[in-house]
Known about the structure:
5-stranded mixed β-sheet, Ubiquitin-like (UB roll), 392 residues, 4-stranded antiparallel β-sheet, Alpha-Beta Plaits, 3 domains, alpha+beta
Amino acid sequence: xxxxxxxxxxxxxxxxxxxxxxxxxxxxxxxxxxxxxxxxxxxxxxxxxxxxxxxxxxxxxxxxxxxxxxxxxxxxxxxxxxxxxxxxxxxxxxxxxxxxxxxxxxxxxxxxxxxxxxxxxxxxxxxxxxxxxxxxxxxxxxxxxxxxxxxxxxxxxxxxxxxxxxxxxxxxxxxxxxxxxxxxxxxxxxxxxxxxxxxxxxxxxxxxxxxxxxxxxxxxxxxxxxxxxxxxxxxxxxxxxxxxxxxxxxxxxxxxxxxxxxxxxxxxxxxxxxxxxxxxxxxxxxxxxxxxxxxxxxxxxxxxxxxxxxxxxxxxxxxxxxxxxxxxxxxxxxxxxxxxxxxxxxxxxxxxxxxxxxxxxxxxxxxxxxxxxxxxxxxxxxxxxxxxxxxx
Length: 392
């Protein structure tokens, strides 16, 4: 899978990301052609090679006509995006970025998202930055974006509301809302390093971790300032994922001469020894004897303990071990007080999809027995209430 990693050693803004994408191969002409469908006039996209410290970078500029830019509300911005002929996925992502930004601004100013006048960040250049970032990632074939911790910066900055502390209140709200990791900034950089636009883009589109990857290209997007002594730029790593799937062991043995009453006991012992899963399969063995394959999935560090249980508790004379890998999704156990009593459900999270829940059997069984309810009805209630808690 093609991925990219944002190395925000000097922060991130919308134009820094746009510059990095151009530097990585998303051409200015191609981006301008994509963004022409926004159907708003008075802008052009330019790029030039500049030095930031000792590093050659691409500086992206959204040049605007002389006319003053209007203050736009969230509905105004969403209407501009929706009227464009950008691909549906681009429109959805760009709209989600501005909704996230509006929600952060609303929390700061004690208002509602639709009532917020964005001032600078809804000016035409920010709309071009956001839509250009989304389109640029698509043009480069980036399927997943990752991001480093974001530097806090320091000092104060000028905004439409006057002088504000750094990080800007909206920036800090965005980072807090996404649980984005924040890195300390050197004392010689008392400036805004993460803008609200940059924070909105990465908190919506990126995962805050460094992936296992092969790096094929490194690109740099220049910041607007060129301070002496350090490189004010955003670094973009572009490449492919490396197979970093978890490694497990499959420990197996075939048995055709053991009392079947023992298998349940052995299964309990295997789970107690650290097995991730245990299952039995019927097979026909030599001399046409019916037998059972005992299969155990376990972490590598539990191999000796699992083998010891099989050799001690069953009639087998040996076990075979093979290495397997598996795909895993983010999951957790949600314990909560349902209307029926204490309950629990497994929560499965797939990237870009709503969470899915599966009620825990033992908790549902206890409720069904205590209340005299059908187990299936308990499952329906627990699933519905678990989803409601996750959505609230």
